[in-house]
Structure formats: C-alpha cells, structure tokens
Amino acid sequence: MSSSSIIWPQKFLPGTTDNFVSNEIYVPNLIAQDVWPNLVDITRWESYYDNAGQITPPASGPTLQNPGEQFSFATFGFPPLQAQIKESVAPTATSPGRLAWRAWQDGDADSAFEIYHAWIVEDTEWGAVRILTQESQSGKPAAELAKQRPNPMLLGHQRWLDGLAAASVTAKAKT
C-alpha cells in the first residue's frame, strides 16, 4: 500500500519556507472514520490538545468542512490566527480523509507570518489508521520557531496527534 501525501500549494512546498514539520502516527484498532469527527469538529480540539484555544468556528458551525470558510484559534502563544479552510474531504473505506487550512497573522516584517497546515487520515491494509499532519510556515516568527531546540512545533503537533488518537480510542470504546 502506498501512503497518501499532502497536496501543497507552490508557495508552501516543504524546504522552501522558514519552518516545516511533519508528524505521523499509526493507531491500531481504529479506522479513519473513527478519527475524522474529532479532527474536523474544531470545538473538540481543546478537550484533547492543550495548545489550542480561543477558538472561533466557521459561520456554518463547528465542523471544518466547507473550503473557503474562515475560523480562528490561538496556538503556540500567538494571538488568535485567522484561518481559511482549503481542503476538507471526509475519509471513506477506500480513500483518505484530507483536511488543510491556511492561517496567518498580519503585521510588519517582524511579526507577520503565514502557514499551511494539512492532515491525512487513512486506513492501512493491516488494520491501523495512519494520521499525518504537516505544517509549512513563512515569516520571521516562523524562522524563530524553527531555531528553537527542542522544536516546539514538532513537539506540539505530536501532542496533537497523540491527543487526537486517545480521544478517538475513547470515543470508539463508548459506542
């Protein structure tokens, strides 16, 4: 089985921006459809990820499902970032779930930055779910994050994946 990959806009291609991280886990005994609701319902994030807050869902409701819609959230100590859904395709038994957004902070040359954050949630042939998240960032704040050791974005996104997986296991056990 070949794994799906992120569809990157040209300006966010990995290796061409100021900061890039990739995190991936495989979780046994879950399927993509168990994970998807916990990822796309933005109001659930704070219950399993301690680095998201001040969430404002899209106007249509709490689910990140309509490309073009905007939402906002605070993360990594930044004030709430404006974000726009770029891709949202729910998983099926034969195709991966895909979620991506562009987020930004306006400002001057020292404070403005832009990110592209993408997710893939897909079933494997061996009965695990693969959850991949990658983020590419441009701007001085992104370059400063990339210099930090340990890398806070890499560690933060790993906590996000681990929390998402745990929340999905717990939700499945209740059904």
From TrEMBL:
<protein>
    <recommendedName>
        <fullName>Polyketide cyclase</fullName>
    </recommendedName>
</protein>
<dbReference type="InterPro" id="IPR023393">
    <property type="entry name" value="START-like_dom_sf"/>
</dbReference>
